[in-house]
Design goal:
heterodimer, A: about 130 residues, alpha+beta, three-stranded antiparallel β-sheet, B: about 200 residues, 5 helices, elongated
């Protein structure tokens, strides 16, 4: 360093400083890149884990039973057995707790209250539906 | 003797220190297993397609008719299930025509129907609810276990246990009921809900 002029020494300091800054920038870019590899995985896993289709299916089935009940094609005993079907199948095959209550027809309001409860340990869903049949 | 050399040495020392810390950070953080981000995306898409196909099959043409899936379960018609689920909906006709000759790169499905009944035979004093399943549709090739599979399900209304309707399995009368695939004997003869479970995997 003894042979260098003061101007060159200052220039070298700037070069080293800039190289240092650029290396830090590259490090952070690498950090972001490494994080991005797990983004697609967690998104897909989130979609796989969320029981969207199960919820829609159970809900449609319960409203279907409500319709059959209001049409008089199910006796009370048959309706109770169908509820046991749904509860047992959900519990054993889908590991989900399903409960529902089909209310009586309210002639004044012209509707019927249906309460649906779904819980698979991760997601819980409750609905109080007003059904016009 | 104070001169500008010390500044350069200090800066070099700081840079070296930072580089050492970063190296230690990367080395200590590296023993995590990275799976490629798109591993589960195809599974997610396959599950969504399968659920959509079951939903289409369980949609009745109008309010007075049963859905195709309900008819299939009621008559235990595995051939019709495979034809609709696999050929008509999962793959278009053209693709299916090619895939039947190239089963090595196809999607294989196995359908099982689960039902609930009360077991009064084993312990008549203490009847227990039982979940029982039977195979509705067989896979074209057996499951190898090397490919990840997805499972889609659908609840289906069944009005009664089928005993006489053989129109789908033997279209030419007179029909021999003994030849028809019937539901297992433990299926109760009453309106009930069954669970159609389809397991799909790439083979």
């Amino acid at each position: 360093m003894e042979g260098l002029s003061p101007e060159m020494k200052e220039e070298a300091q700037w070069i080293v400083l800039m190289g240092f800054l650029v290396s830090i920038g590259i490090f952070f870019l690498a950090l972001i890149l490494s994080q991005s590899t797990i983004v697609g995985q967690t998104t897909a896993e989130g979609v796989l884990e969320f029981p969207k289709n199960d919820l829609q299916d159970v809900r449609a089935e319960i409203l279907d039973i409500t319709k059959e009940k209001s049409m008089g094609s199910l006796t009370q005993a048959q309706e109770n057995r169908v509820m046991e079907d749904i509860q047992n199948l959900s519990l054993h095959r889908k590991s989900a707790l399903v409960e529902y209550l089909i209310g009586d027809w309210d002639p004044g309001a012209g509707n019927r209250i249906v309460r649906i409860h779904y819980n698979n340990g991760v997601f819980e869903y409750d609905e109080t539906a007003s059904v016009r049949y | 003797m104070v001169n500008s050399d010390a500044q350069l040495y200090t800066m070099e020392g700081i840079a070296a220190g930072v580089i050492m810390i970063l190296t230690a950070y990367l080395v200590l953080g590296s023993p995590s297993v990275y799976t490629p981000g798109d591993t589960h995306i195809t599974d997610m898409q396959l599950e969504q397609v399968g659920a959509d196909v079951l939903k289409i099959m369980d949609t009745p043409p109008d309010l007075n008719n049963a859905s195709e899936l309900e008819k299939i379960v009621a008559t235990n018609d595995g051939a019709r299930f495979h034809q609709l689920f696999w050929e008509t909906y999962l793959m278009s006709g053209e693709i299916a025509a090619q895939k039947t000759t190239r089963t090595g790169s196809s999607i294989i499905t196995n359908a099982t129907v689960y039902y609930h009944y009360t077991d009064t035979v084993t312990d008549p004093l203490n009847p227990q609810p039982v979940i029982q399943g039977y195979q509705l549709s067989k896979p074209l090739i057996p499951y190898s276990g090397s490919e990840p599979g997805v499972r889609v399900t659908r609840y289906v209304n069944v009005t009664a246990r089928n005993t006489t309707d053989c129109s789908s399995c033997c279209p030419i009368p007179p029909c021999d009921p003994a030849l028809c695939p019937k539901m297992p004997a433990t299926v109760e003869d009453r309106p009930q809900v069954m669970l159609v479970e389809v397991f799909m995997w790439k083979a």
